[in-house]
Amino acid sequence: MNYILEFLSDFIKEFVFLLPYFFAGVAIEALIRTFKWHIKIKNTIKKYGIISIFIATALGLISPLCACGVLPLSLGLLFGGVPFSTVMALIITSPLMSPAGYTLTQFELGTEWAIVKLISAGFMGIYAGLVTYFLEDKYFKEYQIMKLDSIPHDADFHDPDFPIDELRCSCHRQLSHRVEEKTRSKFLLFLAKFYEGAMRIGKYLLIGIFFEILISKYVPSEWVGNYLSKGNPLNILMVIIVSIPLYVNQISASAILYGLLEKGISKGAGLAFLIGGPVTAIPVMAVFFTLFKKRVFFYYLFIAVSGTYILSLIYQFFF
Length: 319
Prior knowledge:
16 helices
């Protein structure tokens, strides 16, 4: 019983300490969604060729959309004629960074880790976009990407009868959508979007804190020290591979990594977990496997793993 009470006490303390950063990040995201700044950026993507890769990466960095939320948007862009290279930049970047993700990482891991994560997310988007750009004329033309019988090109993701549950937009059920229909008040709309963001992000924050305390208290330091403290290329690759099946997002990954860093995980392996886990989240991989051709699924996995590995090695051995 004492162990449970001690665990709950630590959990509550950590949650209270995180609240200011949590609220700051959620507020920034709500502001972006209220004024639809990310939509305005999205509407310019298809105009600028290879430069669109950098615009899509910037959109992914500031977008409040999670990995699952960005897929309908990305498919809509594909059907609208946006090149696959640009869409890849957005899909890769969005799960890795958001305003709330940055503020919570800064509190959990410090400013250096927050900046490293931001730069890494930007690199991943540009890396994915540019590699795909030079391959798409030969390997990723429209008919080579999707299982065309899976979804009609004129499909509307906002349609309540849209046939694919994972991609059907639920915006008509959101509080902010109902508020927007009934009032022109930006303040009320902001409050509604703040509430939605707090509910969406908060559950991952709670999961992350739970595992952070669990690791800090009950994972032997010797285990982490023996296997993950050296930061050699094989250990870093092992962390990336192990991260693939884990259901972590950018919020929970930061909190879990805090516990691992206390145990002595190397910075290269730490970055591998921080980036590799969210970018290969199971829901995203499942949708990719369902809607895209297998070669595209394995290509996405290759880009995610190779980009994470490159970043982790650079951070381990050069910084």
